[in-house]
């Protein structure tokens, strides 16, 4: 009898839960390194990768629409063919360290694969991004495999030490496991009768971890949502009072050497005090699109650990709670979680928010053009000699190795809607937007503005929590109050 083929087993991860039966709520989870590493890996994911992994249904403000704008953006408006791919699938500085986790979240990410140009005789072009332009005119499409990663081979994977157990509260505060910490969580929930508590073991696969990521972005009880609630019964996240959050925010300290301002025009509705749309240069579009490349941990740090992203702030603060070398593997791991950098070449020239970009590594490639190494080896696994090559910047037209550059061509002005739909400027499109919102053309007012670091921070915050980003940041109700502080001169509306 012929053997029956069986499907490969899907990796699963066990998790012990303590449950309050009366409230049908998770009190805490007891776990080891594997689950905590996965939770902390959320902080290293760029926002664009999170949106892609969750099928463009994150529920995070206007970020999904910003991502869709990149997908629909006219290819001729990008500086190089690789720019769109960089924004839709941004790489992570921590991708090598996350590759050895118990469950792999991003199956498309291949940190061990780089790309070379097939038509380049000198084999001069090596890129971390598929489809980057080679100096010879071709594109980097042939994959080459890594021989190893210097400093990682034989080292401990992930972020926390293997010998420690942890407890994770329903709102994702991670603590070292102890009787005292467990009793404190029980007391915080007002549980006096131990008979209402029961233990339950659940088994997670990749899909359930992605569901946990999705709920953690919008909910304060993601463990309960994922493991105790039916998907159809989970309430949508309550809309946050965005204007109050933006007005109440503490102004960031603006460095004296950063006087960069990005000009823009706002078209306001006199009747509703809302921004209908904005016109701006490629500098603002680059800034908005770059939000997709920001690692989640860097966003939380920029917003002072008050991101309003579900309970992700708690997860971020847990890194500080576990800063002792007894828990985190190294200071490098702590920095990778609390101040994650942009992947090499993902920064833009006029970035107002100061997220550091990782330095590109020099790689060694072999004569057979099928593998490469970051180590000091002089021969590959096939016995061929290896030579050093620098990674090139996929955003640059000349395929240079210097950092910086932008994603969008400077070909005029672009149209940005209140909901973060971005497109090349089109008078017909602007009329369509006006008609769609049923705004009388005579009821529009044009206002000139300049955008600096404080406004950029407000834009980022509003993109995370609002469906009316421009209105929440630039509403006429705020223009008079903020005129002297950070927007420069605005033509005042007539008192009549």
TrEMBL record:
Listed InterPro entries: DUF674
Pfam families reported for this sequence: DUF674 (PF05056)
Protein name: DUF674 domain-containing protein
């Amino acid at each position: 009898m012929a053997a029956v083929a069986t499907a490969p087993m899907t990796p699963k991860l066990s998790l012990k839960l303590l449950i309050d039966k009366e409230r049908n709520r998770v009190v805490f989870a007891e776990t080891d390194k594997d689950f905590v590493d996965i939770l902390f890996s959320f902080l290293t994911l760029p926002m664009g990768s999170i949106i892609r992994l969750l099928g463009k249904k994150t529920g995070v403000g206007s970020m999904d629409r910003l991502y869709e704008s990149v997908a629909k953006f006219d290819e001729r408006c990008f500086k190089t063919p690789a720019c769109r791919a960089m924004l839709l699938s941004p790489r992570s500085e921590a991708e090598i360290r996350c590759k050895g986790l118990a469950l792999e979240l991003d199956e498309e990410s291949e940190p061990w694969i780089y790309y070379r140009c097939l038509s380049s005789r000198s084999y001069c072009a090596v890129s971390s991004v598929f489809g980057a332009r080679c100096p010879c005119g071709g594109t980097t499409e042939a994959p080459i495999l890594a021989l190893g990663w210097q400093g990682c081979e034989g080292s401990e994977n992930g972020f926390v030490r293997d010998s420690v157990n942890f407890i994770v509260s329903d709102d994702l505060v991670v603590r070292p496991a102890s009787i005292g910490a467990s009793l404190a969580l029980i007391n915080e929930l007002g549980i006096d009768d131990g008979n209402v508590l029961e233990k339950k073991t659940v088994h997670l696969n990749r899909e359930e971890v992605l569901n946990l990521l999705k709920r953690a972005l919008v909910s304060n009880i993601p463990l309960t949502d994922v493991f105790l609630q039916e998907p159809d019964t989970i309430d949508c996240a309550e809309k946050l009072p965005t204007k109050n959050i933006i007005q109440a925010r503490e102004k960031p300290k603006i460095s004296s050497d950063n006087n960069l301002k990005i000009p823009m025009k706002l078209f306001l509705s006199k009747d509703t005090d809302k921004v209908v749309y904005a016109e701006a240069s490629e500098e603002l579009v680059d800034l908005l699109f770059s939000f997709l490349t920001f690692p989640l941990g860097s966003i939380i740090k920029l917003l002072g650990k008050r991101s309003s992203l579900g309970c992700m702030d708690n997860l971020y603060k847990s890194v500080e709670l576990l800063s002792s070398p007894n828990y985190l593997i190294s200071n490098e791991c702590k920095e990778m979680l609390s101040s994650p950098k942009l992947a090499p070449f993902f920064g833009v020239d006029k970035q107002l928010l100061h997220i550091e970009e990782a330095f590109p590594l020099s790689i060694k490639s072999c004569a057979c053009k099928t593998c490469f190494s970051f180590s000091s080896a002089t021969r590959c696994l096939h016995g061929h000699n290896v030579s050093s090559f620098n990674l090139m910047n996929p955003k640059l037209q000349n395929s240079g190795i210097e950092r910086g550059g932008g994603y969008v061509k400077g070909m005029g002005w672009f149209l940005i809607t209140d909901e973060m739909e971005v497109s090349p400027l089109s008078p017909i499109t602007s009329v369509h937007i006006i008609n769609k919102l049923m705004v009388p053309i005579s009821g529009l007012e044009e206002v000139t503005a300049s955008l600096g670091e404080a406004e950029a921070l407000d834009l980022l915050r509003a993109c995370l929590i609002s469906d009316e980003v421009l209105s929440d940041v630039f509403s006429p109700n705020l223009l008079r109050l903020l005129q002297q502080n950070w927007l420069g001169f605005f033509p005042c509306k007539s008192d009549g």
